[in-house]
Design brief:
With about 425 residues, the protein is mainly alpha-helical. Helix content is about 80%, strand content about 0%. α3 packs antiparallel against α4 and α12 runs antiparallel to α13. The longest helix is centred in the middle third of the chain and has 32 residues. The C terminus is likely disordered.
């Protein structure tokens, strides 16, 4: 029997929190662009500019917020940032100008990036190292399941196509983050593990850690796969292939269902840094093959054949995605000092924000302009980053030295005291 929710304990509570807010996110992703353009009246350029700036600021802010999670305890900060994200989404309901939208977008991205860092630090504090990658795989499965449900609800809003339904979809997302904050408060407290500062050591030590920076850069390059299905593929199918437009939905359903069903099994193969680096290297090879398949879908005039090629390429791509996730999570956790998980996860996770920021423009320009050569360039970048990850991990591992013991959950400190003490 396939399970997407982990067994009892903190991992299950973490999974339920992310399942809750991912349902709202699914509705948000489906409806937000049309809401901002058709209801608020913003141009595509204004929407893109605000979101790009928001994720740029969020990528920078994620590191100090992760450091705050180390210093003050991640549970309270994660709950506060989850609630703040819900309020930021709520602010979208009242924007009526580009300036207001820009402020809300920056607030939203900063809260999201900080929340991701705090949740990762919380996971590291509550789950023993040997189970972190497995737990992270469960979280990924539950997130995809929630996104699928939320996307279906968002699809209803799109079908009705009224201001009220768009507002309802966004309100659902905001409420989901508020509920997730309450779920996070059910977790045991994780005490501050970096309260004492070592003389001569920078407060944000991750910014001086060049091996970890290289590993994070390679991971960010691999994360450029994210805009492929959501941004590039709809335009590629319509402009360059004979496949019907509804193939976009088919590929998204295939991707989501595969992650829900198989991500945990895939992660079980990663047990240490060596197997993690091999998983990322294999992901680079698989992503190259997938890019070749997507390029091949433009050949010929048969809609049926183009559809088959697209499905096959998307199936290969999601295998690469799951391999990358499994290896990347192990690398990000294992190479971070136990007393600095928050700031290190904030830095490592900034790759997601950067990929969201530059990926759509970069990939649409590369692939829609260059066509097949663009796909091959992208595939070569995946391959190069995947192959380089092994040496980069070994470099980072050689500089690690003895790490502090993993933090032990403490009971009794309230969430507010954790953040404010």
């Amino acid at each position: 029997m396939i399970r997407i929710i982990p067994s009892q304990g903190p991992p299950r509570t973490l999974a339920l929190a992310q399942l809750t807010n991912s349902v709202g996110d699914g509705a948000y992703y489906v409806c937000s662009t049309l809401y901002f353009s058709r209801i608020v009246g913003l141009s595509p350029a204004q929407i893109g500019m605000a979101l790009t700036l928001g994720w740029a600021v969020g990528a920078v802010v994620g590191v100090p917020l992760g450091h705050l999670a180390d210093r003050r305890g991640p549970r309270g900060l994660a709950a506060l940032l989850s609630a703040a994200t819900g309020l930021a989404v709520g602010a979208f309901l009242f924007v009526d100008s580009f300036g207001a939208f820009l402020v809300a977008a920056v607030l939203y991205a900063c809260c999201q990036c900080g929340l991701a860092a705090a949740r990762q630090a919380l996971l590291a504090g509550l789950v023993e190292p040997a189970r972190r990658t497995e737990t992270r795989a469960y979280l990924q499965s539950t997130v995809n399941a929630g996104l699928a449900v939320g996307a279906a609800l968002g699809g209803v809003a799109l079908q009705v196509d009224t201001k009220a339904t768009y507002l309802t979809a966004l309100a659902l997302d905001g409420t989901s983050f508020l509920l997730a904050a309450l779920i996070l408060l059910r977790l045991p407290s994780v005490g501050a593990v970096a309260a004492a500062h070592v003389k001569g050591e920078p407060h944000l030590a991750v910014l001086k850690d060049r091996p970890y920076a290289l590993v994070s850069l390679l991971n960010m390059i691999m994360l450029l796969y994210m805009p492929v299905l959501s941004v590039v593929m709809p335009l590629w199918i319509v402009r360059h292939t004979a496949a019907p437009g509804w193939m976009v939905s088919t590929l998204l359903v295939l991707n989501t269902a595969s992650v829900v069903l198989f991500q945990v099994r895939m992660a079980a193969r990663v047990r240490d840094l060596g197997s993690a680096a091999r998983a990322v290297r294999l992901s680079g090879v698989v992503m190259l093959v997938a890019c070749g398949g997507f390029a091949l879908s433009a050949a010929g005039t048969s809609a049926w054949l183009a559809g088959v090629v697209l499905v096959a390429a998307a199936g290969v791509q999601v295998v690469g995605e799951m391999l990358l996730g499994s290896g990347s999570w192990e690398i990000g956790f294992s190479l971070a000092p136990a007393d600095k998980q928050g700031q290190y996860q904030g830095f490592y996770g900034s790759g997601t924000a950067i990929a969201r920021m530059i990926g759509p423009l970069l990939l649409t320009t590369l692939i829609l302009t260059w066509g097949t050569p663009g796909w091959l360039v992208l595939g070569a970048a995946f391959l190069a980053a995947g192959v380089a990850m092994g040496p980069a991990v070994r470099w980072a591992e050689s500089r690690t030295g003895p790490l502090l013991p993993a933090p032990v959950p403490e009971h009794g400190a309230g969430p507010v005291e954790e953040v404010l003490r």
